[in-house]
Amino acid sequence: MQPARRTWVVFAALTLLIAVAGCSSSSLPDAPSERIAAAKAAAQSAEDTVADFVPRDEVERRHQIPTGNLLPCSSGKQWSGNTTLQLVRRYDADRLVDTVARKAARAGFTVERDVSRSGTPRLSVTNNAGVSLLFGVWNQGTVVNIDSFSMCFSLPTGFSPHPSY
């Protein structure tokens, strides 16, 4: 291989490696407690955004749990939380899921629709920061459930996280 071509190949490989490393490393803070808090904030913000896609006049009560848990994921941990919406009346699950899917896609989320084992429609919604949400309509169309899972992040070796955050 010619020296100029070899230099270009090495440069291209290093550029690709840095780009991939940049994608896999998080923009979260370095301190473990701050890192967890930032992941929690990102997940709860995504919950709020998707909950806002449900027509406001259909929501009687909204509850976001104040604490969640750390779960294992491919590259470390992820914060998991939940928001529920009590609806004013029984709502057609297919219609509500379609409405939320359309609004989420317009807002830049990646949306996948499927059906639960019980036959009810549900959504998997992911934002560009890597926060994933599971959106479902429960109790014969009277409750919306939104489970959140932050982006995966690493914690330092030896760090012992609390049971909930």
User: Count of helices?
Assistant: 3
Radius of gyration, Cα only, in angstroms? 20 Å
Strand fraction equals 25-35%
**How much helical structure, as a percent, in the residues?**
25-40%
Largest beta-sheet details: 7 strands, antiparallel
Could you tell me how far the N terminus lies from the C terminus, measured between alpha carbons in angstroms?
55 Å
Mean pLDDT: 87
Supply the helix-strand structural class. alpha+beta
The SSE string, one letter per element, is HHEEEHEEEE
Low-confidence blocks of residues: 3-25
Number of strands: 7
**How does the overall form come out from the CA principal axes?**
elongated
Could you give a short description of this structure?
By secondary structure, this protein is an alpha+beta fold. The protein is 34% helix and 30% strand. Strands 1, 2, 3, 4, 5, 6 and 7 form a seven-stranded antiparallel beta sheet that branches.
